[in-house]
Amino acid sequence: MKGLFKTKPKTPTELVISTRELLTYADKTTEIRERKREEKVAELNKTILEMRIVLYGSDQSEPNADACEQLTQEFFREDTFRLLTTSLPKLNLGARRDVTNIMANLQRQRVNSRLIACKYLEDNLDLMDILISGYEDCDIALTYGTISRECIRHQSIAKYVLNSGHMKKFFIYLQNPNFDIASDVQATFKELLTRHKATVAEFLSTNYDWFFKEYNSQLLESTSYITKRHAVKLLGDVLLDRTNSSVMVRYVSSLDNMRILMNLLRDSNKTIKFESFHVFKLFVANQQKPAEITRVLVSNRSKLLRFFADFTLEKDMVLTYFLIKAPQFLLFYSVIVFGPALLLICLCMLLKTLAETDSKSDHDDCVVCLDDFNDEDDDESDVYMDLEIYNDLKIGADDHTWSFA
Fold first, then answer.
1. Which of 113, 325, 348, 378 maximizes the CB count within 10 A of its CB?
2. pTM score of the predicted model
3. 183, pLDDT greater than 60
4. Is residue 143 within a helix (H) or strand (E), and if so which, with residue range?
5. In this structure, is residue 120 part of a structural domain?
6. Which segment of the chain is annotated as a signal peptide (predicted)?
């Protein structure tokens, strides 16, 4: 007899309508009996779970494309996204996870070949203000952060966030003492600065002064190991992206920026040292160094050589001679591709030439090219002579500070 009165499963459209009604009811009702409230909450949790199953499928079945399309269309037809977003703090952890999965999936669902989630968010940009500001509430920060990252998959939404006042707030959010929240903020920050390359390049070019001033002072010079580690890694990723080439040249032409990176090379943490190295090599590889940067590299030549003695030089040694005899443009690309081993050799040779240039021309011409190594009188023995000197260098007590005079 029980099977005769089995409840008919709700359609995807009915699931969304039911969710909307339950959320509206819970939002408007201020005084209800505890038992009634618990019943409504349980029904809401069940309905949310059923929506997730429609989108992701279950152990017994795969998701149905038509059902997903119906659910998506109804979800964005009304303000279900807004209702769920504002009601998330009231839901239990299980329901929050289901809602997060639902919203993430809906960002990718197409209706008539269109991403209607993007259009909905473009018409309701204030929702991004709610989501990003969620980092100020420890209880909901991780959930809102995950949804934010899914939303900024859409270029127009990422552009809105980049050009909003939230970007300045990120420098505060990134220093949250809670490790999980700080890591989540970092993930969102990285997504904003790496996913949509053309939009990011435009943002960095337009906002270069204030952005990198904050980036340097708040992140790279932070007292937090986690903050510095993430910041220097992300800086390298951004500067090495070809789309940001003009920003990279501008950044590596600043002595103040190089001073920060050289100090990070002294950090006690090996990871920070390593990531700082990959940014510092851009200053060295820059073919149009300002005179002040050249002077600093020359004045610190011996200290730099002794400092880099700790880096491994064993691999890729067979390519040394080829690299030094290669055309000028290979310096920049080879240090990116082959890493520290080859760059250290380049540093030795480049700093040597800088010193010679300094003594001969008194810095009249501060552009140093690999053509300086292409004299016919040079031979392979000169390269290995420098390597032997390099390998004998040790870090001394006078190498604990750089000279920026």
1. 348
2. 0.77
3. yes
4. helix 141-151
5. no
6. none
